[in-house]
Amino acid sequence: xxxxxxxxxxxxxxxxxxxxxxxxxxxxxxxxxxxxxxxxxxxxxxxxxxxxxxxxxxxxxxxxxxxxxxxxxxxxxxxxxxxxxxxxxxxxxxxxxxxxxxxxxxxxxxxxxxxxxxxxxxxxxxxxxxxxxxxxxxxxxxxxxxxxxxxxxxxxxxxxxxxxxxxxxxxxxxxxxxxxxxxxxxxxxxxxxxxxxxxxxxxxxxxxxxxxxxxxxxxxxxxxxxxxxxxxxxxxxxxxxxxxxxxxxxxxxxxxxxxxxxxxxxxxxxxxxxxxxxxxxxxxxxxxxxxxxxxxxxxxxxxxxxxxxxxxxxxxxxxxxxxxxxxxxxxxxxxxxxxxxxxxxxxxxxxxxxxxxxxxxxxxxxxxxxxxxxxxxxxxxxxxxxxxxxxxxxxxxxxxxxxxxxxxxxxxxxxxxxxxxxxxxxxxxxxxxxxxxxxxxxxxxxxxxxxxxxxxxxxxxxxxxxxxxxxxxxxxxxxxxxxxxxxxxxxxxxxxxxxxxxxxxxxxxxxxxxxxxxxxxxxxxxxxxxxxxxxxxxxxxxxx
Length: 544
Ligand code: GLN
What we know:
This protein has 544 residues and is α/β, with parallel strands linked by helices.
């Protein structure tokens, strides 16, 4: 039977619980254990798919097509374990299921209540498909004390009792703030938070204390005394220069050892951490640097492009260079044409990432044009591929009014809505104007690459599978004219119906992909497209 680790947060949000869970899982994995991480989100949206990136940051998409919390991206990047639909659940989804059952009459006349119906559903979610695992880490979103998270804490309390001693532990992540006027770190918020959690019936076994300054032994002892936790199990967690140093830092503070001890297990031999030391060594000792211009829409909020940001860093790890990302607001190029060269000339490569809606589209098309004309490496992801096709259509194929139906009715739908396509489960159909939630082409789809293409050599394969999240597709009715303009359709869906990759073989590096390769990149296994793109940026940096 799997052992369970329940992770809650206290005092404030944004304490890096997700990163802590991912790091602990990586450390347990480095000790030879099989792990899986799950995230419970207490909000009422059924999934984060319909939330604005400003609300929620990036929506992370799994192979099985779930739109999930961005923490699942950390989990996957740190452990290499592919996340599934069943690894992220929201209160909204739980209530949706319960209410559907109630309407069907499944409860046989009973009163449907938070306890036991909601808590049972939470417990089932935590335990589903865990037989072949050693540890399941369950992270509860939000902060202890929130009304919304109460059913989750209650479910943990019940589950801890049901699983029996030694089969579960609780980790509480808190903040130990530094009050500069007093020149001291303050433990009181942690004490209150632990008391609040204990009042709900959950006593933490390990405390992770986020702090800006090293936690003095005296404060550590005080937290241990007041919070009823062994002193060694009070783990200080200082900010790290890079997220990939976090597993090593937590290990140095003893978290994996304390977790095993809390389960009554022998810590045994030290974990194998060479994978992580190698990554940190490369990050700390770059042999050069490149600047990548990312022309997007949510550039004020780096969390909106979390996986993209990480995949670019991974490309840097692969090439032993530091990657500086310059986030550029596409609308700036629409307001001020002179800004295009001003902002893009200092960049060694240009990337247009995924996006929804018309805002900023012309600025992105202008960026494609700049990259193409100046021979600067260009990487278009999803929307960025669509804009590369519209640019090619307008500027090289003479289709002056080329556009996307996403922006309204058009006579030249170079990018159009798809209403039918094949998935593993058969023909999928959509109606124009239907629901927005869960109605995209989502998750892993295979593609076939042309044998002599640039991308086939980058992947070193002609068969790939990548994750998708979009409604619109490049319209194959325009393929011939676009190809005459030099834009080659080098990757297609296996039935040949949907364009997956376009490239310009006459350009130093110009690739557009309909999918999101950034979702599958790992620091220890950089995605080939990102490794190749950064390599092209390095070549470009030597030219200018
Ligand atoms: N808005 C575009 C579509 O739905 C692109 C989506 C994306 O970039 N993820 O097709």
